[in-house]
Task: structure prediction
Amino acid sequence: MKIKSPSISFLIIIFFSILTFSSCKKDFDVLADLPETFTKKVLIEEFTGEWCGACASAFPRIQTVLDENPNTVFAAALHYNDPFSTTETHSIKSTFGISSFPSALVDRYSFGTSSPRVPLLTSTLRNKSETRLEEKITMGLKINTEFLEDGKATIKVFIGQNEITEGDLRLTTYLIEDEVPEVNQSGASGNDYRHHAVVREVLTEAAGNKLSNLDVQDRDFFIRSFENIDISEYDKDHLSIIAFVHYFDASDKSNHEIINVQKVKLGKNQDWD
Result:
C-alpha cells in the first residue's frame, strides 16, 4: 500500500506549532524564574575629568560607601572632556545640569529638591544611599554575559517585575572598566594614579532605551540583548556591566529616579536577587 507524504500545509502547521510552543516555553521559564521579592540596589554616578584637580581625591569617598554596602551600592564614573569621555556623557551631563566637578547623583533621585545633584562628600553619599536602600521595589534585573572571539562580548539584560509599573521607563546599560591608568590626571600625587568604574561605553541611548508592555500585567519581563560589543581596546579582566531601570522626563530633571540596578563582571552571570 502506498503511503501518502505529508502535505506542505500540514508541515507548515507543525513547524509553527513547534515554534510557538518553544517561544511560550521560553517566556514561561522566565516568568517562573522571577522571585517574589527583589533586593533594592543603588547607583552612584560620578561626574569627573582628568583636568579637574579636585576629582583625584573624590572617588575614594565613593569607594568608602561601596565598601560599606558590598553588592548593593555600585558606582559609575562619567568622564567629561578628557580621554575617557563618551558622546553620551555630554548628553547625560546636560540632562541633569551638571556644571561643577566633581559632582554625583545617587539613584538620580532629587531628595525633595529641584535637582538630583548632590555634593560628593562621604557623609552625603552614605546618607543618600542608605535612604534609597530602604525604598520598597517590585522590579529587579539579572544579567548574562559572554566573551566571544575576536575581542567581542554579548550581554543580555533581563528586567522583571511583580507589579505593573507605569510611566516612561528606560533601561540604561554601561560598560565600565576599573584600574584604568591615568593619562594626565591633575591633582594626582603621582603618575601611577588609577581610575575606577570608568564608563567606557553607554550601550543604550544616552536617555536609555524605552521599556514596553510593563504596564499591562503584574508579573512580566523585558529582555534587551547587546550583541558583538567590541571590547578589544580594554582590559577584559577589569570590565563589568551595570544596567539600571529608571524613569525619564525630558522636561523635568528631578524626575529620573532609578528604580533598581544590577552589576556583573563581564564574562559572568548575575541572577535575580
Notes: The two ends are 61 Å apart (CA to CA). Confidence is low (pLDDT under 50) at residues 10-28.
